[in-house]
């Protein structure tokens, strides 16, 4: 976004959801628990970079942001994530409730981005690579959980459920990405442009 000097094809709503994810996941933990310098720096980086992206999209790159098509209603994602966070939490401490909410919200945070791409009917290669890398980041999380399950007996069922939800959401995108983006610079997304269209 910064190198291209525009926010075309990037969903501000998805970026806002990532701000909410990182603040609810790391906000309290940052001030109450110290694991390592690396861990603390990464938490600060996640929060600061996601806030910076939202800020840039609302100020410097506002004229290039496609607000007309970025219309996915956020309450459809936030409310169910909060309910799942309450239902599937390990305990009812504020930290645990926020953490569980954040993993469910992160699992669906890509929805406004996918909706924007679908509404526009396609994506530039750079936007497609960005979404693919977001999915790749989730794959690394899943590999970490598998490793920790076998090495440490760590088995957070709520994180596994959220990871499964996110994997299902990305599956069709990954298929289309591998099939099209490797060959073309721009690709078309199949139908569904009118889903949740509030016009």
TrEMBL record:
<dbReference type="GO" id="GO:0015031">
    <property type="term" value="P:protein transport"/>
</dbReference>
<dbReference type="GO" id="GO:0046923">
    <property type="term" value="F:ER retention sequence binding"/>
</dbReference>
<feature type="transmembrane region" description="Helical">
    <location>
        <begin position="71"/>
        <end position="88"/>
    </location>
</feature>
<protein>
    <recommendedName>
        <fullName>ER lumen protein-retaining receptor</fullName>
    </recommendedName>
</protein>
<dbReference type="GO" id="GO:0006621">
    <property type="term" value="P:protein retention in ER lumen"/>
</dbReference>
<feature type="transmembrane region" description="Helical">
    <location>
        <begin position="40"/>
        <end position="59"/>
    </location>
</feature>
<feature type="transmembrane region" description="Helical">
    <location>
        <begin position="159"/>
        <end position="178"/>
    </location>
</feature>
<comment type="similarity">
    <text>Belongs to the ERD2 family.</text>
</comment>
<dbReference type="Pfam" id="PF00810">
    <property type="entry name" value="ER_lumen_recept"/>
</dbReference>
<keyword id="KW-0472">Membrane</keyword>
<dbReference type="GO" id="GO:0005789">
    <property type="term" value="C:endoplasmic reticulum membrane"/>
</dbReference>
<feature type="transmembrane region" description="Helical">
    <location>
        <begin position="94"/>
        <end position="117"/>
    </location>
</feature>
<keyword id="KW-0256">Endoplasmic reticulum</keyword>
<keyword id="KW-0653">Protein transport</keyword>
<feature type="transmembrane region" description="Helical">
    <location>
        <begin position="129"/>
        <end position="147"/>
    </location>
</feature>
<feature type="transmembrane region" description="Helical">
    <location>
        <begin position="12"/>
        <end position="28"/>
    </location>
</feature>
<dbReference type="GO" id="GO:0016192">
    <property type="term" value="P:vesicle-mediated transport"/>
</dbReference>
<dbReference type="InterPro" id="IPR000133">
    <property type="entry name" value="ER_ret_rcpt"/>
</dbReference>
<keyword id="KW-0812">Transmembrane</keyword>
<keyword id="KW-0675">Receptor</keyword>
<keyword id="KW-0813">Transport</keyword>
<keyword id="KW-1133">Transmembrane helix</keyword>
<keyword id="KW-0931">ER-Golgi transport</keyword>
């Amino acid at each position: 976004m910064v190198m291209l000097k525009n926010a075309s094809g990037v969903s501000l709503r998805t970026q806002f959801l990532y701000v909410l994810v990182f603040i609810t996941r790391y906000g309290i933990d940052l001030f109450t628990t110290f694991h390592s310098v690396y861990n603390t720096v990464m938490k600060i980086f996640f929060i600061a970079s996601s806030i910076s992206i939202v800020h840039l999209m609302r100020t410097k790159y506002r004229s290039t942001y496609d607000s007309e098509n970025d219309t996915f209603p956020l309450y459809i994602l936030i409310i169910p994530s909060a309910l799942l966070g309450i239902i599937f939490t390990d305990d009812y401490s504020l930290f645990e409730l926020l953490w569980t909410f954040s993993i469910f919200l992160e699992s669906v945070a890509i929805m406004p981005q996918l909706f924007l791409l679908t509404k526009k009917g396609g994506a530039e290669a750079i936007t497609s690579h960005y979404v693919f890398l977001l999915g790749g980041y989730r794959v690394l999380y899943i590999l970490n959980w598998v490793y920790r399950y076998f090495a440490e007996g760590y088995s957070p069922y709520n994180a596994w459920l959220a990871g499964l939800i996110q994997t299902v959401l990305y599956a069709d995108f990954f298929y289309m990405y591998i099939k099209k983006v490797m060959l073309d610079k721009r690709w078309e997304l199949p139908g569904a442009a009118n889903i949740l269209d509030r016009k």
